[in-house]
Write a structure and sequence with these properties.
Length: about 300
């Protein structure tokens, strides 16, 4: 290799290596907070234990969270709107994390306030909390909402794709607008928001319909959270935020955490997905014969 070429190659390689070290240093020196991880649901569905090596089976496990530099993890507590006894299911997911924390006190710690979070960070443990993804899991009960809070839930998404009796979802407001009994928050829905404010539980506005969004942000006296949504102007998906919503969250003092799912960042994804599903209808139908739940063979966001 020519001497000048070699020197040039060496300098480029050195710069790239230095850049890689720079971002890694920044990452591991920062407090990294992930507001939405579906690991508990996946573990129960697949019969897995999250403090074991789940490489090739899940996106994360306890060891990989630590290796990846995650400092604060909000574990999503989720079930779809078809699940019988959603409150009991949510408690089962919470039991799963409680058992992991009990087995691994040197690695992970459940926290409920700022002081406990800082204590976990100082001890180099993952600070763990719950985020309840879907208001249907409180089963129309403020007492059950309080129970979730006492167990470590620090946010609740008012709806998932399914609406509740007191709040309408983005999916339903978009696809069922004419048949909805109500749109937005009912009087009880506003009580839910107010009770969350009293508890210090963040009101999460991912998944909610536009009317629910505006009703909630005009009811909440505390900053809100949008735990996993992106920008409608860049990708016009019903789950993304329009410019006036983003400005309203900023005025409220709230925070938006982005979602890297393709359908929220690539406006052509849904069309390509529809074509793929159409081309593979036979295979999908055979999968649904094994498990009739639509989520087994489809992607719902």
């Amino acid at each position: 290799m020519h001497k000048k070429t070699f020197i040039c190659f060496f300098l480029i390689a050195h710069c790239l290596f230095a850049g890689a070290q720079s971002y890694k240093k920044l990452h591991f020196n920062a407090v990294v907070v992930d507001t939405h991880n579906d690991l508990l649901t996946t573990a129960i569905d697949k019969g897995l234990v999250i403090d074991q090596d789940l490489s090739g089976k899940t996106h994360s496990d306890l060891a990989r969270l630590k290796k990846g530099g995650v400092d604060v993890q909000l574990f999503s507590v989720w079930c779809d709107g078809l699940k019988a006894d959603p409150y009991a299911w949510a408690n089962r997911e919470m039991d799963t994390l409680d058992a992991v924390a009990k087995r691994n006190p040197d690695k992970i710690m459940k926290v409920g306030n700022t002081a406990e979070l800082l204590q976990a960070l100082k001890a180099k443990k993952i600070a763990a909390m719950f985020g309840v993804e879907g208001g249907h899991m409180i089963e129309n009960s403020l007492d059950k909402l309080y129970h979730f809070y006492r167990r470590g839930a620090r946010y609740m998404t008012l709806t998932w794709n399914n609406s509740t009796e007191w709040a309408t979802s983005a999916l339903d407001e978009t696809t069922k607008a004419d048949s909805l009994k109500h749109k937005g928050l009912t009087a009880f829905g506003k009580q839910v928001v107010q009770r969350m404010n009293e508890l210090g539980m963040l009101v999460d506005l991912s998944h909610v319909g536009e009317q629910t969004f505006w009703d909630a942000i005009n009811t909440s006296t505390n900053p809100v959270l949008v735990s996993h949504s992106c920008v409608y102007t860049l990708c016009p998906h019903r789950r993304n935020l329009k410019d006036d919503q983003i400005k309203a969250i900023a005025k409220n003092g709230g925070v938006i955490h982005l979602n890297f799912y393709s359908g929220f960042v690539d406006s052509s994804f849904e069309r390509r997905s529809e074509i793929f599903n159409s081309n593979h209808k036979t295979e999908r139908d055979s999968i649904l014969k094994i498990n009739p739940e639509p989520y087994f063979a489809d992607v719902f966001v």
